Every structure is written in structure tokens, then in C-alpha cells.
Amino acid sequence: MSRLQVVSGKGGTGKTTVAAALALALATEGKRTLLVEVEGRQGIAQLFEAEALPYEERKIAVAPGGGEVYALAIDAELALLDYLQMFYKLGSAGRALKKLGAIDFATTVAPGIRDVLLTGKACEAVRRKDKAGRFTYDYVIMDAPPTGRITRFLNVNDEVAGLAKIGPIHNQAQAVMRVLKSPQTAVHLVTLLEEMPVQETVDGIAELRSARLPVGRVIVNMVRPQVLDATDLELVRSVPRTAVAKSLSAAGLGGARRGGHAEKLVAPLLRQAEEYAERYELEHEQRAVLGELGLPLNELPLLTEGMDLAGLYELAGELRNQGLA
Questions:
Q1: Which phi and psi angles does 130 have, rounded to 5°?
Q2: Which of 6, 146, 152, 176 is buried most deeply by CB count within 10 Å?
Q3: What are the two backbone dihedrals, phi and then psi, of residue 195, each rounded to the nearest 5 degrees?
Q4: Half-sphere exposure of 11 toward its Cβ, with a 13 Å CA cutoff?
Q5: What is the Rg, in whole angstroms, of the alpha carbon atoms belonging to the chain?
């Protein structure tokens, strides 16, 4: 399994939740994972009911089997200071530049520099080893930008390597792209069984493939439980209203006489069934569209009681059961 797992998706699909659940799932059985946030929203801290993450790797959870989940919110300005120290040994001069506002200027104005720093820091964590030569983290999971930006975000180092033909910037950009375009990386897209998220997923996968970035899985999030199957829905369409009223009456839900309680229940029940039928057809169509992509497809259930830490562990268990860890 790829050591760098990048999770993207249209806004509102729950990509941060899926990334966090994946980090927990992969940390099972003593593994160590690093969950990286690059958008500065502190969504990971909220999910794990923790304080805002600093620019340092901090343990935030223990997975079943004793594995550990660490988290890092990458700050582009501080990442640039790291970069300047690593390649140019600026030390206090770099801190002086920050005080003067030069660091903020560089990460805001210079084209693509912010994304270069964010991806570079994540890839450094993938490559890092301890004194014994073992990888510091078994897996690094990146909560990445939305689908509409993911290809350019991951591919920006190619552009930088092309602009800077020699020197440490060129070498760093090439090193990052060697990770991102290798089997070490898998880019997963999170979607819902709705037309717009599915179409954005299809378009995003086409862009990733065109850029020769390694596409992993499609993860369908917040899947509603199936209440009626196709046979049940056909019965709803074909059974007369009077027969439904009699069945309700036989079940003790009111008299069968005209205007009785059972008869009054028929209209709202059938209306609800019709709404369910419409959603069922839509979801069936969208599954077919996703199936044509030729990628592994996983589904995570809608947690009706909302998302909390217990729910996150539940989703991690679902991912493990489906073979993602």
C-alpha cells in the first residue's frame, strides 16, 4: 500500500473526515501514521476534539492495536523558514526576514511557492528515517485541497523544476515529484452519490490521469441505508391505495372505512416512498457513473447521530473491514 495517501474531494463531501478515519485505520496493529493538514482550517483538531494544531507533529490519537496517529498543520511561512535553513543556512537571518514581512510576501505573491512548500513538507515526512534507518511514519495521510485544485496543487513542483533549471530549488522540486508520481503515492477522491460531486470526481480523475499522478480509490461518503430495494419500489408503484389502507388497518393502524386513520396515512407514506424512489434511482445512476472509472470503490455510511470522535473510530473500522488497512 502507498505510504503517502492524499485525500481530496468536492467541498461538503467530508474529505477531512475520511482522511482522519483513514489515518486511524492505517494506524491499526502498532503502525504510526501522520495526518497532515494543508489548508489552515484546523478541521483535524475539531474532529479529534483537540486544541488547534501547531506547526509541529503532535500525537492526537491511539488506534486499536496500539498504533499512533500524529497530526501536523503545515504553515507555509514556517515551512519556508525551514526550507531556507535547510538549503541556505540562514538561521537568524531567516527569522529577521519573517519580522520584516518578507516571508509572508513570498508565500502570498510568488506563484505556486505556497503549494511547493506544503507538498514538500509532506513528502519530507514520507522520506524521513530514524537513526536505525526505519521510516519515522509507516503512512502519511494528507487532507488535501478540493478536487478542483488537487491536480495543480500536486503538480506545481513540476512547474517549479522547469522554471529553476539548476540549484537546490530545482533539486527539491524534482525530489518531491519523484514521490508524488511514484507508487509511494495514491490520490483518493471522496464523493457523495449526487450528480455534482460525482461529475467533479470524474473530471478530477481525468485531470490527475492526464498529469500522470497516481489515482487510488473513489470513496463514497455518507451513504444512506437502503430501506427499499427495486422490487419493493415496484410494489409501491403498482399496489392500489385501497390495498395499502387495508394493510395498514390490518396492522392495527386505524379503521379501513373511508376517511379512517389508515386511509389518511396512505398519501404521506406513498409520497415518502416516491421521494425515496427518486433518490434510489439517482444513487443507482451515480454508482454506475463511478463504476465506469475502473477504480476501486468504497462506501462509508451516513452516521445519523452526527460526527464525533466515536463516529470517527466507527468509520475507521469500516475502512479496515473493506480492506483499506
A1: -85, -175
A2: 6
A3: -60, -50
A4: 4
A5: 25
Confidence of residue 300 (pLDDT cuts 50, 70, 90): very high
- Phi then psi for 54, rounded to 5 degrees? -85, 180
Provide the 10 A C-beta neighbour count for residue 128: 12
Q: Which three cell numbers stand for residue 139?
A: 503512512
Do the beta carbons of residue 121 and residue 74 sit within 8 Å? yes
What DSSP assignment string belongs to 45-81? HHHTT-PPP-SS-EEEEE-TTS-EEEEEE--HHHHHH
Q: In sequence order, which residues have a C-beta less than 8 Å from that of residue 117 and are 6 or more positions away?
A: 74, 76, 79, 80, 83, 107
Q: Please give the model's pTM, rounded to 2 decimal places.
A: 0.83
Q: How far is CA 148 from CA 119, 152, 218, in A?
A: 17, 9, 15
Question: Of 311, 244, 278, 274, which Cα lies nearest the Cα of 18?
Answer: 311
Distances from the Cα of 40 to the Cα of 100, 104, 126, 181, 193, angstroms: 22, 15, 20, 25, 28
Cell numbers at 95, concatenated: 527569522
